[in-house]
């Protein structure tokens, strides 16, 4: 898959993004040696910001695999965030993959070299010593051509966020990934707030509400429906979610679905057990289950 995005990317403003993708890089995740907590954290942050996640992928520490996935996501998402593969060792190839995916050369970045030297100077016992970079440090200062080192507003001394075109390149260590993602979402991506959401709890099995659900999916194309079965104790047997950017459209679709369920199941007692509003869902975690 060829990628001819250089011209478009130079004009791209991340503050206008509406969709996002995530590429998690690491053999240790695919082999089950390390748990991937970054994906869950990112999904929650993107949802808070009102960004639509279009794709998430975990790929090996193989440059060709990363390039292929980046090209796919850049072609379908406004912004792509990567996690992992930024260290100095042989298997840290994310930067090279980003350069290839965006059609850019790799070059030593003067600003990054200065930052690394500054950090080394702070740790040096001799303040007058000449600071040189090791080959590993030079590798870390070699970035895709056109990369931006973006410093958060109000934090001129903070370590910058690396952005190349529409790709934000983050470390894989959860502590650092979360810190950088917080910065990106707060300073460089739009904050539209969470999308409108309703959760409809039903005392019915999924098979009983298929007709009502399918009819609403066809009728209300501007919102997204989800259906989640519950097994075990309790009255709730199915939860249906309705989500969208327009609260009025979500409300209308939710009311239509509830009406159709009640019409289909007139003989059922407590077919609809409750409808949670967006404010209730975002101030309480009690609705979350392994099925959602």
TrEMBL record:
Q: Give the top-rank taxon of the lineage listed in the UniProt record for this protein.
A: Eukaryota
Q: Which CDD domains match?
A: cinA (cd00885)
Name by which UniProt lists this protein: MoaB/Mog domain-containing protein
Record-annotated MoaB/Mog domain positions: 21-192
Tell me which InterPro entries the record gives.
CinA, FLAD1_M, MoaB/Mog-like_dom_sf, MoaB/Mog_dom
What transmembrane ranges does the database entry give?
none
PANTHER family in alphabetical order? NICOTINAMIDE-NUCLEOTIDE AMIDOHYDROLASE PNCC, NMN AMIDOHYDROLASE-LIKE PROTEIN YFAY
Sorted alphabetically, which Pfam families does this protein's record hold? Answer: FLAD1_M, MoCF_biosynth
């Amino acid at each position: 898959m060829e990628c001819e995005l250089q011209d478009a990317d130079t004009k791209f403003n991340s503050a206008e993004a509406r969709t996002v993708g995530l590429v998690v890089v690491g053999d240790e995740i695919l082999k089950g040696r390390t748990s991937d907590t970054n994906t869950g954290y990112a999904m929650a942050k993107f949802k808070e910001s009102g960004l639509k996640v279009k794709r998430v992928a975990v790929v090996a520490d193989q440059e060709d695999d990363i390039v292929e996935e980046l090209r796919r996501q850049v072609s379908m998402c406004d912004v792509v965030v990567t996690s992992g593969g930024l260290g100095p060792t042989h298997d840290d190839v994310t930067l090279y993959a980003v350069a290839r995916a965006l059609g850019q050369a790799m070059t030593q970045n003067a600003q990054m070299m200065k930052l690394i030297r500054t950090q080394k100077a702070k740790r040096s016992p001799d303040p007058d010593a000449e600071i040189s970079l090791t080959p590993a440090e030079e590798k870390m200062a070699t970035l895709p051509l056109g990369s931006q080192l973006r410093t958060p507003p109000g934090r001129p001394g903070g370590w910058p966020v690396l952005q190349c075109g529409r790709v934000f390149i983050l470390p894989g260590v959860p502590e650092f990934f979360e810190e950088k993602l917080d910065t990106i979402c707060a300073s460089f991506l739009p904050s539209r707030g969470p999308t409108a959401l309703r959760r409809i709890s039903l005392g019915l099995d999924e098979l009983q509400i298929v007709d009502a659900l399918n009819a609403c999916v066809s009728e209300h194309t501007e919102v997204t429906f989800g259906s989640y079965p519950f097994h075990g104790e309790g009255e709730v047997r199915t939860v249906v979610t309705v989500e969208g950017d327009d609260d009025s459209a979500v409300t209308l679709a939710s009311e239509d679905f509830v009406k159709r369920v009640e019409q289909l199941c007139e003989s059922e007692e407590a077919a609809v057990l409750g409808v949670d509003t967006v404010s209730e869902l975002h101030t309480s975690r009690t609705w979350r289950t392994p099925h959602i």
